[in-house]
Design brief:
Layout: E1 14-18, E2 21-24, E3 29-32, H1 35-38, H2 47-59, H3 70-83, E4 89-93, H4 96-111, E5 115-119, H5 128-132, E6 149-152, H6 157-164, E7 169-175, H7 188-200, E8 204-208, E9 232-235, E10 246-250, H8 269-284, H9 287-305, E11 310-314, E12 317-321, H10 327-337, E13 339-340, E14 342-344, E15 348-351, H11 359-375
Parallel strand pairs: 3-13, 5-6, 5-7, 7-8, 8-9
Antiparallel strand pairs: 1-2, 2-3, 4-10, 9-10, 11-12, 12-15, 14-15
Helix pairs in contact: 2-8, 3-8, 6-7, 9-11, 10-11
The structure holds pyridoxal-5'-phosphate.
Pyridoxal-5'-phosphate (PLP) is lined by residues 95-97, 100, 123-125, 175, 179-180, 208, 210-211, 236.
């Protein structure tokens, strides 16, 4: 059997990883500024993480959500404490798209409405409703397109107010920072106005923090820069540091009912062990602060050393937009400098390293990028 061929692959085969580094099958070492697509939060193969998951596996790997699992409660407690959303409730699932699907469902149950508002360039996942709320027609199949989704321009509160005033919108969904769309940070005034307009018309506000959350922005959630309180927050990626886990944080005004959501694998014992290890390491090693400091250091130094079209970012979620296509730069960084980076669109280099990135590692990237741009 062959693999269903859907991924454009870089020609490397990583076989080992530690901290911010990957090694391929030929023994070459790479600095990982891609973090497996914003997933590696506490660094690869962190000893506490490895120990938490392997000792859990030795005790018990799985049982279903039909029994009491105290690790889920511990995870909710520790997450609430670290992100300071103490009175929210947590629903656990397996991925980002699934978190958004469940968020839409909660919003629809709560409001009795079925329409969703999303924003231009948004990415919310590839399952049915999540992909319908993603601004990329190429990945929406006919079966996904019956969802009622309206896309509005980013940062345009008047258009949002106009649409919500019809009182038929269940939820507005917005990324804390748009990732796939190009590392676009919403105006904080816009987010504050969005919160008010949603309240005014009985629409729930969903913050998709799947990529920008879990400390990446230098705050636990990127929306916390705007000091708003969304009704629903979705999380995944950094939450499990590579172990599949996602979650939906739900405000106390929204009531649960038995059976309204459910999953076989969501919040399983191994996923909880991974999630707990991540939170423990993030706290113990002050990784949110590190993301803020190293992110600022990178942005400031990028500003002074290279001439880009635009630099955007918060913490360790950084977009470097060039005038030209960056596929060659990205390949040269990988093959010539052994540095793995991400991309948004065709001309934005996207940096999503582990939150453990050190100043020395940041310097190594800055020096390599500078040398590469000056040699071409
Ligand atoms: C903002 C955002 N939402 C949702 C998703 C979907 O997450 P997953 O691939 O885990 O389904 C992604 C993935 O890149 C994302 O960046």
């Amino acid at each position: 059997m062959n693999l269903f061929d859907v991924y454009s692959l870089f020609n490397i085969t990583p076989v080992r990883a530690e901290g911010c580094y990957l090694w391929d099958d030929k023994g070459t070492k790479y600095l990982d500024l891609y973090g497996g697509h914003a997933v590696i939060s506490i660094g690869h193969s962190h000893p506490h993480y490895v120990d938490r998951i392997s000792s859990q596996l030795n005790r018990m790997g799985f049982y279903s959500n039909s029994v009491v699992n105290p690790m889920q409660e511990e995870l909710a407690q520790k997450l609430g404490d670290l992100c300071e959303m103490y009175d929210y409730s947590l629903f656990l699932c397996n991925s980002g798209a699934e978190a958004n699907e469940n968020a839409f469902k909660v919003a629809s149950f709560h409001t009795g409405r079925s329409k969703i508002v999303a924003f231009e360039k948004a990415f919310h996942g590839r399952t049915s409703a999540a992909v319908a709320a993603t601004d990329n027609t190429k990945i929406v199949a006919p079966v996904n397109s019956f969802h009622q989704v309206e896309f509005l321009p980013f940062n345009d509160i008047d258009r949002v107010e106009q649409v919500l005033s019809k009182k038929d919108v269940a939820a507005v969904i917005i990324e804390g920072i748009q990732g796939v769309g190009g590392v676009n940070i919403p105006d904080y005034d816009f987010l504050r106005a969005l919160e008010k307009v949603c309240k005014k018309f009985g629409t729930l506000l969903i913050l998709d923090e799947i990529q920008s959350g879990y400390g990446r922005s230098g705050k636990f959630f990127a929306f916390q820069y705007a000091e708003i309180q969304p009704d629903i927050i979705t999380i995944a990626k950094g939450m499990g540091n590579g172990f599949p886990i996602g979650g939906v944080l739900i405000s106390p005004e929204i009531k649960s009912e038995k059976g309204m959501l459910g999953t076989t694998f969501g919040g399983n014992y191994l996923a909880c062990a991974a999630g707990l290890a991540v939170l423990e390491v993030m706290k113990e090693e002050s990784l949110i602060l590190n993301a803020k400091e190293i992110g600022e250091y990178l942005l400031n130094n990028l500003q002074s050393t290279i001439s880009a079209k635009e630099l955007r970012g918060e913490g360790l979620m950084i977009g470097v937009e060039f005038y030209e296509k960056i596929s060659a730069i990205r390949l040269q960084l990988l093959k010539g400098k052994n540095i793995f980076t991400g991309v948004s669109g065709v001309n934005t280099l996207r940096l999503l390293p582990p939150l453990t990135l050190s100043k020395k590692q940041a310097d190594s990237f800055l020096g390599s990028l500078h040398a590469l741009l000056n040699s071409s």
